[in-house]
Design a protein that fits this description.
This protein has 15 helices and 5 strands. The protein is mostly helical. It has 3 domains: 125 residues; 165 residues, hpI Integrase, Chain A, CATH 1.10.443.10; 38 residues. The chain has a 3-stranded antiparallel beta sheet. The chain has a two-stranded antiparallel ribbon with strand order 4-5.
Length: 356
């Protein structure tokens, strides 16, 4: 059985962040549900209410208190729910069974909403895979890719015929840019500035317009892909990522992009990899390279560094030890150089005295 770790995260200050409209909607659902099963009002429904509050705090911190019935939520539902799964796993250290229960808690609210005709459809039903192996109660500690894994995936995508050029573009774009799946899925040929290595004016959450950048290797893949597209759809479809169904080429869905990212993760033995992990890896790499949290925040398109810190992989004791060794070596070298300079000055002074 996995070790249970309790994280004190949801303080009153955080609960106060919840959008009152979202809280009102959920309380309406909760009252309706309790009427049908009052016996578990103080047990099961108390747990579910707590889980939903956690989700609403997550929306407040990560999605600027987006409303549960808003068009923005429905457009980004997959990204939101997968991000919440990652938050539960990495920050709250929840096991898989608990995460699945939290997904069910949010899903049940939308099932009820559809039945009440408050919305037309469930925003993520059948689109999110529940975490596998929940009964084993094993927690995947994190999905931050190491430098070695980043290189291993890059090499594997080039060498393994199972993967195609769209997989390679998806991977390098995600690692280079650190953007959310919502932005990646909206990339168009008309927004592409190939020379400067970016996609311009891409709509992300809450209508925010962002740039999606990429490096030279990705640039070469995109050039190759554009040439291939001339023979496929003659570049008539504006979307960067496309798939063939219904006897024609269409814009690739978020679900298809997510499934591709899951397959990419298998190159390093991660069976339940998510697009959100590319984002976390990218932001963490910026922090490691620059040691500048403000730059990491800008790269992530976050409003404040408190959120960005959730995307930085905590250092292990071993890493801290090795870093201290490195710093000691630098300090010792500085002292040695300083002493050498002092000795040189003393030698010069003795020479001057002898010459008198």
């Amino acid at each position: 059985m996995a070790k249970i770790v309790k994280i004190k995260y949801f303080t009153q200050d955080k609960l106060d962040l919840i959008n009152p409209k979202n809280l009102e909607l959920y309380e309406k659902y909760l009252k309706s549900s309790i009427l049908k099963n009052r016996e578990v009002k103080e047990t099961t429904y108390k747990v579910y209410e707590g889980f939903m509050q956690q989700f609403l705090v997550y929306l407040a911190e990560e999605w600027e208190n987006i409303e549960l019935y808003s068009e923005e939520f429905f457009e980004n539902a997959i990204d939101i729910m997968e991000g919440f799964m990652g938050f539960c796993q990495d920050t709250l250290q929840n096991n898989k069974k608990v995460i699945n229960t939290k997904l069910s808690t949010v899903s049940s609210f939308y099932v009820w909403s559809v039945k009440r005709r408050l919305i037309d459809y469930h925003p993520f039903q059948g689109k999110i895979e529940r975490m596998k192996g929940a009964n084993d109660e094993r927690i995947t500690k994190d999905y931050f890719l190491t430098d070695e894994q980043v290189e291993q995936i890059s090499k594997g995508l080039d060498e393994n015929p199972k993967y195609d050029i769209q997989d390679r573009i998806l991977y390098h774009l995600s690692i280079d840019s650190g953007n959310r799946i919502g932005a990646i899925s909206k990339l168009t040929l008309s927004s592409l500035d190939l020379e400067n290595g970016l996609f311009e004016n891409i709509r992300e959450k809450r209508g925010k317009r962002v740039e999606v950048i990429f490096d030279d290797k990705c640039k070469e893949y995109i050039k190759e892909w554009l040439e291939m597209r001339k023979e496929m759809d003659n570049l008539e479809i504006d979307a960067l990522f496309i798939s063939f169904y219904g006897k024609k080429y269409n814009k690739m869905s978020k679900g298809s992009l997510q499934r591709r990212s899951t397959e990419i993760g298998k190159l390093v033995g991660i069976e339940d990899f998510h697009m959100h992990s590319f984002r976390k890896t990218s932001i963490d790499r910026v922090m490691k390279l620059t040691n500048d949290i403000e730059m990491a925040k800008t790269h992530a398109n976050h409003k404040n560094t408190d959120v960005t810190l959730l995307y930085i992989r905590p250092k292990s004791k071993t890493e801290i030890r090795e870093k201290l060794k490195e710093l000691r070596k630098i300090k010792n070298k500085e002292l040695e150089d300083k002493n050498k300079d002092k000795n040189v000055d003393v030698d010069k002074e003795l020479e001057n005295i002898k010459s008198l």
